[in-house]
Amino acid sequence: MTTAQSPEHSKRSPFVIVEDASLLYQGEQGVLALEHFDLSIMQGEFSAVVGPSGCGKSTLMKLISGLSRPTAGRVVVGDAEVKAPLKNVGMAFQNPALLPWRTALENLLLPLQVVRPHRGRFRVQRARYVEQARMLLTKVGLAGVENRYPWELSGGMQQRASICRALIHEPKMLLLDEPFGALDAFTREELWCILRDLWAAQRFNVILVTHDLREAAFLADTVYVMSRSPGRMLVRREIDLPRPRPLELTYSMAFTDIVHELREHIGAIRKPLGIGTPAEAAP
Question: pTM above the 0.85 mark?
């Protein structure tokens, strides 16, 4: 794996460690999704994971969240090895998955009703939690939609509400799996800026899985490039662009160079299986 660490990175302590992890999905023949996978993410880091389709990006998220266990190796979050689904994690996906029978506000309150220690306090402190949810909706530009149902919201509004729901219980880590992939370009960039500002204000850990290299370069401190299946970590690229990052930065030469570099890594991964190239040449 190619890596280059900044002095600031070396001073911080790891928050997520994936150590020599492999995952074999059992079946008639078995599918090796990840192989000898290593990853170290620092406390408070905004990380992005990119790679070709089917390389195991979503599988990696399942390992880190505890939804799946590695066949070999281990995963550590905080100071503890992950052996069960983590409670203090927020998750958002490409499909907002808001419950259609709940209003936007009621969807936000759901984690507080099921996640410890909030669920034990919810009835007594409901007014405080409702105010917290309203404030979060306001931060993402959804003030006034608290009583609307998901089908009354645009796709971008639903995704904002989904991210709010993932953050309402103040998790230490936010896992995002292609959260903006189904949105138009303008809405996607608007949500980049919203996520940027939420992270800057609280500095929780973020791991973003995306196919959008511009998105990865704009939001992340560090971009990790995976090989094709079985997934391995190939490149760790620190994004040394100053923060806060305005959207105009995406039109700069420095930003474009980073995106092109990431694209070259992805292209190199895909090239061995291109037309006219023998499959045996694949790494």
Answer: yes
